[in-house]
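Researcher: I'm preparing a figure for a lab meeting and need a structural model of a single chain. I don't have an experimental structure, so a prediction will have to do for now. The sequence is pasted below. Please return the structure as tokens so I can convert it later.
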Amino acid sequence: MLCLNRNIKFHFILFAYCLLAFNGLYFSTPVRADTTTVVDRIVAVVNDEIITLYELNKMLQPYEENIEALGYAPEKKRETLFKLRTDLLNKLIDQKLADQQIKKNNIKISTKEIDMTIERLKETRSYTDEDLRAGLAQQGLTMEEYRENLKQQLLRSNLVNREVKSKIVVTTQEIEEYYNAHRDKYAGQTKYHIWNIAIRFSAYADSAEIQSALEKMEAVLRQLEQGRSFQEIVNEIPNRPGMLEGSDLGLYELNEMSSDLQNTVKNMKAEEFSPILSSSGGHQIIYVEEILLTDPKAMSDAKAEIQEILYNEAVDNRYETWLTDLRKRSHIKIIK
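Model: Understood. Here is the structure written out token by token.
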């Protein structure tokens, strides 16, 4: 059997897909006799693997919706989307390169390793399971998505340790320097236990849908003003898509909230609810159940947390350096 070296295989793949494109078998579907609609095509070849337009568009979609909601002028929108597509394509190329090396080195992460990492995180940050889930919800992440992100982080860490062949060590001096530079972070902090009732709509919602959502929130606000318990209303809400949603969001410091939420919550007292807060994605009412002052954290108590932060920073730095070098040694072809 004829064996192809990497360089020949790389050009063979390009030739094969170009041939398919010429014949119209892969890249387009006829719509009329005089026109075609592109449904998929290759946007990059990375060594002996491809990245398709479908993959790129899938990654772009949530960002594209946010850009639409910002209401940019057509020219500004085109420039923003072009830069974003370029950045995301480079990210997909980096992911493909890393995945190839992970496969080459037979690096695997077990469910047990992910579970142990989550438990260690909860221990070092003094989080309960509810704290963690509430924090993820604030970032728009589910536990399943968080576990997948964590798996990728662990794969990257193991890959860096394998490829760089130099163990990362965080020294006591580095921990002390970080603690002294972030004393405000480890001083006693005010935390707000917050709930919300919200109704969301897409960036493409029309004025009738937005008005209908607002009327539902106004009905909730009237109930609160009449003295009904916030938690009682939350417990009655079905939490279905397109309907009202109620949640106990958990404990947060002001700097962990969005700027809009900070401006609202910082002026509230315990057991107070906010007016209706509206944004391009929906309406919500915030309720502050209690306000707690946490104890200052001594360096000895913060050591494990700081060690983890500095270790991850070192992994990220080495990963970027290694990836830059790997790009130079790889066959990468971007097809415009």
